Amino acid sequence: MTDPFPNPDRPIDRSVRAKLDADARDADPERVLAGVRRRLAADTVSPVRRTRRWVFAAAGVLAASVLVAVLLLIPGGSVQASPREVVERAKAVHETPTDRCYEVTVHFPDDLRERYPKLAANRKSRLWTRGDRYFVELPDGRGSWGRDEAGRVWIAPTASAGARFDADEVPGILREFFEVRTVQLPRLLDELLSDWDLAWTTADPGRSRGDRKIVATRWAPNGSSLLGAEVDVAANSNVITRLAVTRQFLLHTVTTEFRLVAAEPPNESMYRPEGHLVEGAPIYDRTQALRRLPLLVKYLGPLNGDKKP
Length: 309
Prior knowledge:
By secondary structure, the protein is an alpha+beta fold. It has helices at residues 11-26, 29-43, 47-72, 83-94, 110-115, 172-181, 185-195, 289-299; strands at residues 100-107, 125-130, 133-137, 144-147, 153-158, 161-165, 197-200, 211-217, 226-234, 240-249, 252-261, 283-284. The protein starts with 10 loop residues before the first helix and ends in a 10-residue tail after the last helix.
């Protein structure tokens, strides 16, 4: 039989042939085959084993989903946000021109109530808000006051005359009076977001389910009359349903509570003094300061001598 690989003629080729023959004699075919079989077996997964891996993976995904739901969802089905995020959302909602009505109660300390009985009477009033605009009506038609779209504040002690003040001329005592009995929600929320600590607190049993209650505290004074606040925000609408604001007023601590109530939206004119006066009634401004002063004294009588000795 003819050799298919005869010895080559050239010396260099014969040397290479001799090396290859020697390597072939030293090779162990059975050992090489066994190694190949082991690698193939390692790369092959049986159907039962593959099914078991899929079951474990699915169970892990399900467990992770449940954990995420428990951690991120609150009663009512909305994603749990931080107190700051809730206040930011409430601010955005209350910046829109939507009418909302709040029942207002001012809680004065006993000594201030005794000194200024008319001012400190715990009478309930109605506050209407629309963005930064608002107006307040006292019960039994005892006057109203508010802030219009131009930022001017106004008072209407009776239906026969009113007074209006530009933002740069509002008397300090009138500004304090307004701050205690009213609220500009966007501005207040912006102040709370600036340098206050916002945290969750436990809601009272009587409050609406789904409301998120946030308490605002600050350890360092910043010159503001604001001392603290509690904010209840509806989880489904981000509307403030209750607000309790504590301020420094006449060297005393006064808390004002605002509770959202259902009411028919008011006429646009109610955010201006014209909506509370008879037709043709005068509205005195800075050009008629002497005529405006008696209305201010009448409205703030308790602060100008109408007090117990």
